[in-house]
Amino acid sequence: MAQSVLLTGASGRVGSAILGELADAYTWRLLDRDPPTEDYPGEFVVADITDEKAVREAMAGMDAVIHLAGDPRKDAPWSSVLPNNIDGTRVIYEAAVAEGVETVAFASSNHAVGHYETDERTPDVYREDDDFRLDGTELPRPGNLYGVSKATGELLGRYYHDEYDLSVACVRIGNLTKDHPPIDYERGQAMWLSYRDCAHLFQRCIEADYGYEIVYGISDNDRKYYSIERAREVLGYDPQDNSAEYES
Q1: What's the total number of domains in the chain?
Q2: Range of the domain at 67
Q3: Measured between alpha carbons, how far is 97 from 16 in angstroms, rounded to an integer?
């Protein structure tokens, strides 16, 4: 059971969701390249994830890592995703192995499979009785270079699991919003992830016993493009929110 957790990219939206629910659950060490502008739980380390020495020092003594840091822009150019999302993620995995950390939860993205939405049957995937749902066993089909970087982070996790027995959970995060899903955006409703379900899912990623997993990060929405059955079965994910409850 994780007692101390390193959270990279702590100042971002996903970090806010996690800390908002789990601030008192662990001893936190937070890492971000920008200095904090508000109070955070635990120790705050200002460093870039491409700085191998700084990351190794931040990793020391941790039980688990939640890796969120990177360029989150969907239109990010290769000149940014290569160092920030790919090289930086490799540094995180390498430091985890070097410091004896057993578990890494990696924030992947639905953009790693974005081009599945070009399939002809995509418009039908929001029906409640539809059996066509991505479940993490499909090959990546990135929709942009950001998605390429997230798919690469998943492959790096596979390598570090197979080579070093690191437990890695890759969470393909959907549409994370704080208060409610986008009411007038059907695709966004199907992909919605609430803040509390996000925090719960990442908590299960650092608490459960598994080897290597790719799971989808969405709430228990009536409409689903992605399956959450693997997250339920392996991680014990028990989402509480449903975008249908907010429909007008």
Answers
A1: 1
A2: 4-246
A3: 26
